[in-house]
Write a sequence for this structure.
């Protein structure tokens, strides 16, 4: 059996030997996107480079990226979905293309991991006459050559030009068919109508789990069928085209973006029945069994939800930009994960406060690969304990409110959402209670209220661009520079435990979130103000240099040290000689001298979430 560490490292080493630079996982808390709450793919942190920006490490890259997909929360419990996962990725930025990518990927699967090639299948792009893009015959030819090396005839099955979930609607002989073409499942672009946008076909790899087809997902099985027989384990995106005023045209410099789910690759390499049999989940499964005195095979859904959700919550809270549980945006999802795990634990009969015990196991599993979890261990444990204690109390209150709201024999969607939002009352529990008590309840009304809340959460994340900036105007740049000085002053006044936990900077004001257990006194706030204004008055020069993360750490730079390798970053210094106010890793714009900032003034200090304080500040000319 191959362990997760072996597979992860073999993948990195395989591509490193092929002149790829190993780069670090980016934070789960994204920068540079106005709509994304969490990093949800390996591609996201590299979008600027896929769009043409030069990467400091070159044009061949490989990594394992932490990812969280909030949209999969309800999917967990089917043996193959999880919200937190690692995406193994390799990229070619205008270098190699389809031939090398597909051959290397299959070589890794078959020769490095020894996966039976007879259990591997591939999809390609069927083409689109309206776009003027032909079927991806080049990938088909390469794939047939690859399978031929292993004595396998790779026949091409019937095309799917309609909805990919439905497939071609005819029987498929998978002893003969190895490749199938789809339209909506095998085209990638960002959904923008702007000229200059990239796009291209992608080619997905599937592993045959050997499960029987379930006809509730359609009369005939196919590679993209939801019955679970075929499991996607990797996807090669070929950024081959660019949108012009005259339609899609071939790009001069083509890119490759590959992503493969580590958890699913582990399943295929070891021929597991599901992803939860791997060493990334089994220690958690065993602990849940000890706590509940029940077995995974008796209650697979509960065990899978608890182990997935606590892992995701641990990674989000334990990120160096860690997010604590709360009611809005990212904080809301953390709260939902923790409370949903606790609720399913109660279904198993687990009593007391126990989720932090599972978080410790998550840290033990991943700590040597993602050391930020170890750095933030205390914060993770503290936040999980507090949230679970709150939920235990609110659950009792929620039950009382449920009785009040449903006294007339019916429960409105608004009241059900109030139970969910104000008391952390899971809607699944609400549904169970209304059935038990014979109360009228329309789930669609709750879903409507929930959607309104989701839309609000998403809108609150809008405007978050590079380094938390709302734009790159002169005023925003000045406030961004001042925010660096504010963080440096907070560390001097409060202590070195203070780190940035988030920021949002507009032309009107700067907002900085940072960890501190107590509200700041008026004296402390004045000290911070005076210190920042002192540095502004000293007219300190602002400069930067590029260096590797180890070099930055060695020189004492502040920042989120996500990299374990040699990736280059920008380090900004404010001051020189014996007077250096701030020395920090950052990718955003800055003024050239602190004298350009004006007078710094704190306008508000408040709690952002448990253990996190928030300061809003302005610059007066």
């Amino acid at each position: 059996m191959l362990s997760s560490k072996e597979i992860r490292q073999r993948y990195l080493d395989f591509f490193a030997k092929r002149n790829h630079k190993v780069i670090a996982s980016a934070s789960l808390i994204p920068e540079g996107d106005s709509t994304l709450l969490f990093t949800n793919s390996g591609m996201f942190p590299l979008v600027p480079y896929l769009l043409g920006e030069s990467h400091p490490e070159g044009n061949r890259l490989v990594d394992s990226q932490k990812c969280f997909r909030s949209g999969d929360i309800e999917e967990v419990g089917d043996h193959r979905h999880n919200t937190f996962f690692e995406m193994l990725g390799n990229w070619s930025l205008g270098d190699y293309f389809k031939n090398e990518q597909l051959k290397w990927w299959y070589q890794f699967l078959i020769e490095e991991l020894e996966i039976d090639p007879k259990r591997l299948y591939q999809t390609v792009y069927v083409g689109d006459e309206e776009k003027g893009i032909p079927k991806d015959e080049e990938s088909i030819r390469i794939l047939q050559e690859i399978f031929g090396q292993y004595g396998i005839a790779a026949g091409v099955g019937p095309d799917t030009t309609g909805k990919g979930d439905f497939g071609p609607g005819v029987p498929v002989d998978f002893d003969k068919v190895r490749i199938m073409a789809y339209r909506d499942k095998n085209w990638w672009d960002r959904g923008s109508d702007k000229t200059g946008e990239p796009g291209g076909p992608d080619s997905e790899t599937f592993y045959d789990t050997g499960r029987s087809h379930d006809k509730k997902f359609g009369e005939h099985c196919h590679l993209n069928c939801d019955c679970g027989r075929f499991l996607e384990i990797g996807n090669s995106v070929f950024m081959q085209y660019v949108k012009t005023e005259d339609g899609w045209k071939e790009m001069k410099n083509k890119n490759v973006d590959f992503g493969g789910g580590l958890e699913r690759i582990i399943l295929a390499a070891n021929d597991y029945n599901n992803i939860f049999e791997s060493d990334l989940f089994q220690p958690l499964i065993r602990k849940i069994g000890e706590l509940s005195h029940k077995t995974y095979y008796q209650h697979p859904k509960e065990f899978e939800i608890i182990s997935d959700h606590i892992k995701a919550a641990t990674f989000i809270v334990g990120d160096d930009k860690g997010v604590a549980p709360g009611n809005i945006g990212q904080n809301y999802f953390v709260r939902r994960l923790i409370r949903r795990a606790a609720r399913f634990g109660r279904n198993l009969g687990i009593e007391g406060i126990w989720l932090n015990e599972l978080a410790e196991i998550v840290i033990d599993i991943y700590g040597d690969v993602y050391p930020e979890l170890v750095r933030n261990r205390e914060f993770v444990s503290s936040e999980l304990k507090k949230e679970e204690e709150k939920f235990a109390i609110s659950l009792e209150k929620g039950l009382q409110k449920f009785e009040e709201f449903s006294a007339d024999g019916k429960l409105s969607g608004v009241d059900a959402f109030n139970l969910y939002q104000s008391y952390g009352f899971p809607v699944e529990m609400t549904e169970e209670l209304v059935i038990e008590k014979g109360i009228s309840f329309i789930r669609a009304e709750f879903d409507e209220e929930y959607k309104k809340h989701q839309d609000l959460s998403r809108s609150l994340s809008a405007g978050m661009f590079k380094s938390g900036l709302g734009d790159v105007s002169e005023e925003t740049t000045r406030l961004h520079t001042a925010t660096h000085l504010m963080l440096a002053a907070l560390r001097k006044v409060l202590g070195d435990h203070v780190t940035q936990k988030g920021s949002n900077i507009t032309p009107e004001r700067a907002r900085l979130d940072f960890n501190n257990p107590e509200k700041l006194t008026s004296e402390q706030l004045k000290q911070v103000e005076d210190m920042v204004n002192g540095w502004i008055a000293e007219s300190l020069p602002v400069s930067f240099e590029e260096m590797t993360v180890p070099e930055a750490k060695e020189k004492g730079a502040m920042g989120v040290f996500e990299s374990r390798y040699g990736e280059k970053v920008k380090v900004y210094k404010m001051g020189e000689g014996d007077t250096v106010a701030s020395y920090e890793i950052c990718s955003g714009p800055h003024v050239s001298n602190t004298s350009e900032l004006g007078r710094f003034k704190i306008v508000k200090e408040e709690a952002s979430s448990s253990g996190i304080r928030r300061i809003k500040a302005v610059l007066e000319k």
